[in-house]
């Protein structure tokens, strides 16, 4: 009998323990749920792409469209750990009123320079290019002014003192006179340099100049024995999985693409979609789309394809009065490049401090709408 009582007591005590344990679990569960209800149910603290911020970004895009009268604009924003945001405004074809599309191909214009310069740095890592060598070492066949004192590095950071070949009236007449169909070679584009004088002593000033990147392209061709487009494909496009970025061999674009417009050539919103950009060559010829450029914009910041030395070289700013490194613009936390030719205006930048990708492409360069959009949208994102 006593044993039975002891057993009942033990069972009772065990039940009491389980009861209190269960009670504690229930209380903790209630507290946890209460804490969750008291916190924001949709947006964690320090989030950048909040509902409020997205509304501000979209309103800013609307304002840019109205103020700059641009036919269409693509905006891609991504924040590390938060996701992506696409903003599309306007039309990609004024004749059909077809909306601009996030999958459209477009001309990169001077964003091309970031590819040419990174290719040069990769070849420097492979000991095929010495940034300290003068251009006469690689291109002795061209009587370029200052060729014995202008180094490869000076071509990359725009301190060579060379004139810009795009100011040459003969080349300009050939380009616009042919409605952009004239096919230039890099060798033809540097002809104006051969009869020019330096603007300043090499290495003493910064001057943004397309001639520098054309010469870099010729040096790459010389040391590899390959066309620059093929070197880019081998060293950059393929390793990064960029399947829609290429050097066009005709004036046409692969579908889908949007049309490009300008009001600076005598007609309002003249269609200049098929004005090819062989005039830009290594400084501005590439074609791409948002899917590929969102890969590239991260590479511009991370520089994964480069050695430690070249990573450092990329961001070296030779003069405090400029923000230009080796083929890249570095504005405080933002790194990237702008691009503009008739009918096309792009901004491709990454904010390393906040992990933000910001890509903008407009189908007109008139009044630089993509640049204005970058200023407005970048300010909103930076302030979060």
How would you explain this protein's 3D organization?
This protein is an alpha+beta fold and 384 residues long. The protein has a single domain (51-382), classed as DD-peptidase/beta-lactamase superfamily (Beta-lactamase, 3-Layer(aba) Sandwich), CATH 3.40.710. It is built from 13 helices and 11 strands. It has helices spanning 2-38, 51-68, 112-125, 135-138, 152-156, 169-177, 186-189, 191-194, 210-224, 228-240, 290-302, 308-314, 369-382, and strands at residues 72-79, 83-93, 98-99, 105-107, 261-262, 270-271, 287-289, 329-331, 334-341, 344-351, 356-362. The strands form 3 sheets. Strands 3-2-1-11-10-9-8 form a 7-stranded antiparallel sheet, sandwiched between helices. It has a two-stranded antiparallel ribbon with strand order 4-7. Strands 5-6 form a two-stranded antiparallel ribbon. Helix 3 (112-125) packs across helix 9 (210-224) and helix 3 (112-125) crosses helix 10. It is globular, with a radius of gyration of 28 Å.
Low-confidence stretches: 1-43
CATH superfamily: DD-peptidase/beta-lactamase superfamily
Strand order of the biggest β-sheet? 3-2-1-11-10-9-8
Could you tell me the CATH topology label: Beta-lactamase
Gross geometry: globular
Mean of residue pLDDT values: 90
Based on secondary structure, the structural category is alpha+beta
Distance between the termini: 75 Å
What is the CATH C level class, in words? Alpha Beta
Q: Write down the secondary-structure element order.
A: HHEEEEHHHHHHHHEEEHHEEEEH
| Share of residues in helices | 40-55%
Give me the count of strands.
Answer: 11
Portion in beta strands: 5-15%
Number of helices: 13
* Cα-atom radius of gyration: 28 Å
